[in-house]
Amino acid sequence: MSSEETLARLASFGAKTELPSGERSATVKVEAELQLSGAHVWLVQLDHERPDEHMFLRPDQYWVDLCLIPRRPNARARYVNLWGPHRFSNMGSIIALPPKFKLHLKSEGGKHISLICALEADLVDRWLPAQFEWTDRRLEACLNVSNATVRSLLLNLAHEMRHPDVGTRELCQSITQMMSIELARNLIAMDEPTEHGGLAAWRLRIIDERLARPGKWPTLSELALDCGVSVRHLTRGFRTSRGCSIGDYLAQQRIDAAKRRLATDESIKSVALSTGFSSQSTFTYSFRRATGVTPHEYRKRVLRAVKEGPPRK
User: Fold this and answer.
1) 3-state secondary structure of 71
2) E strands of the chain, at which residues?
3) Using CA atoms, how far apart are residues 266 and 272, in angstroms rounded to an integer?
4) Domain residues of the chain, as ranges?
5) For residues 143 and 91, is the Cβ–Cβ distance under 8 A?
6) Which fold has domain 3-190?
7) CA distances from 69 to 87, 147, 218, 299, 307 (A)
8) Separation between Cα atoms, residue 159 and residue 154, nearest integer Å
9) How are strands ordered across the β-sheet holding 103-107?
10) 66 and 183 Cβ atoms separated by less than 8 Å
11) Quick one: angle between helices 246-262 and 231-242, nearest 10?
């Protein structure tokens, strides 16, 4: 199957998606694929030759994507029927695009290695309360899922896909079921700030923008000062808004920032210091605990993927 056919197959799976001719020039390689009850999982490499822009809609599925290397630059999205034409939110290393919402997706060109899991909507929705509402905060959070349990489950799923063994199908089935519950719990935990004391959207953007800057990693006190609130208000409000502690969020953002730097020729020691770790050894321990590999092993994997890339046909 050619790259174009494979990309079209991925794009059309359960979708009502606009794919204008000529706007999605990419080569693609499916490393592994698994059809489960209520879920379809792929491990894919994509190489976009130029900036990519398209509309995305899945009527009956949650589209969960864990980017295994730094996501392509300026990857962002907006909810077409809810947000204005200029309001885009950056996509994190994990996204869980909800069903029935049309999104406008943009990113620069480049390589992308992802674990993609298309979950039937009922797997998640059955755990949501009858009064559940898709608030703006919940929709925005789907573009950057910060839940550590969801991340761990996706990494386990990726490992099983890459290294199948006895019981892999049954284990992957269990993982997708657990992930569905965790996604529902994560969504339920995100209350609206006006009712339950969460942080306003502009304060959350200040935090994300500060973390994206190069240089010294900010402390909680510095972030609270930037937002104009106390540290206590920041920590309590952040958990209400994002469904996770700000400590866990900062830890994952540090790892994601380190991944982006490891994709360059910057020394590992410099990466450690620039992302707020006290030493290279502390960084190596934390990085391996979060990803399962050392920074050196991760860099070798990224460079190998960039060098090889998906085959062009």
Assistant:
1) coil
2) 26-36, 39-48, 52-56, 61-67, 76-79, 89-90, 94-97, 103-107, 110-120
3) 10
4) 3-190, 194-308
5) yes
6) Jelly Rolls (2.60.120)
7) 26, 18, 24, 10, 14
8) 9
9) 52-56, 103-107, 76-79, 89-90
10) no
11) 80
Q: In which residue are the tokens 């992302």 written?
A: 275
Q: How far is CA 286 from CA 235, 239, 291, in A?
A: 22, 22, 9
Residue 239, amino acid: R
Q: 13: burial class by Cβ within 10 Å (0-12, 13-18, 19+)?
A: middle
Q: By C-alpha distance, which of 95, 37, 33, 38 is closest to 63? A: 95
- Residue 207's closest CA among 244, 245, 234? 234
Stated length of the chain: 313
From residue 39, alpha-carbon distances to 1, 67, 214, 247, 284 in Å are 22, 18, 39, 32, 34
Token duo for residue 272: 């450690």
Phi, psi of 109 (to 5 degrees): -75, 170
Specify the pTM.
0.70
The CATH class that applies to domain 194-308 reads mainly alpha
Distance between CA atoms of residues 75 and 97, nearest Å: 14
Would you write out the chain's pLDDT as a tens digit for each of its 313 residues?
544 555 555 555 544 444 443 445 678 888 899 999 999 999 998 888 888 888 999 999 999 999 888 787 788 999 999 999 899 988 988 999 999 999 999 988 887 789 999 999 999 999 999 989 998 889 988 998 888 889 889 989 998 998 999 999 999 999 999 999 999 998 988 765 444 567 877 788 888 878 877 667 888 999 999 888 899 999 988 888 777 888 888 888 888 888 888 877 889 998 888 888 888 999 999 998 888 889 998 888 776 665 555 444 4
